[in-house]
Amino acid sequence: MIASISGVPGLSVGVVHEGEVVLRHNYGHSDVSGQKPTTDNTIYPIASLSKSFTSFIYGSLVHEGLADWSSPIREILPAFHSTSAEVTNWTTPLDLLSHRTGIAGGESLYWHAQPLLDDSGILPMFGSQPTIHPFRTEWSYNNLGYAIVDLAMGALTGKSYSSLLESRIARPFGLSRTGLSFNDSQCCDVAKTYLVTEDGTAHLLKVLAVITSGKTFMKDSEMSISERSYGLGWIRTQLPGTLGAMGLNPWLSQMPLINTPRLALYHQGNLPGVTSAVNLFPETRSDVVVLSNGYGLCDAPDWVAQFIIEELFEIEMPLMRAKPYA
CB–CB of 87/131 below 8 Å? Predict the structure, then answer.
């Protein structure tokens, strides 16, 4: 019902509890015109869920002594600069990965089905953006920071982000269907992406070609692995509290309170044609992952995940509050 209300064409769910897979469910179509159903093997773009991958990879370089968290990023990327001298001189990888530079994100230049910005424009774009908060005083979401860390990792290792993703995450964890890009010639079950208009119609988008901070592909069942380490790119919430802060639903309605005490680590991903959500509960070794191939009238993966969380932990209060945009 939620997917139908939002208009997203396809959606896949994976749930792990006490370290065991307890649910896999697929809804709708990965290809609307071909009426191809979603499956456990459907590969989806995950958008900003890839931020945890970037942080994990950089953390592995720190662990090996190839990088550190607190040195100025200019020591790695001399071309790094900002409209703020303080940001130029003192910004570290930790600042970039925790969204605390205070610099505007410039999302309108790459938040499109066919973005206007590629990797070569990341540093100049960051350098031209205005200061919206004093340095290190407030959290302000900025995708460019993750893209800059991607560039720094390339400079430190001489390897592409795709290569680092393969060697440090995909291969060690056995994620054979996870990578930076896939197409139908490489794999027979890649979800096409759709944008849903106000009348609920899903319109096909071209394959996204975006900077590495925002786009990774993986299948839903590979996303459902227990949390093994803490890294940036996660929102840490000690419940009681609310989830879903990184998604679209807070723009539509007040988010519901989850009134059971436990630690939650979560993130969401949104790009044209993509919405996704992952929620981890380390104390019970539980994961709830929902991936979709549409940007709908509400954030379907978030609502689906929250309903599952309600059932998983026997939360009595209803969680659904949002209405589809009209």
Answer: yes
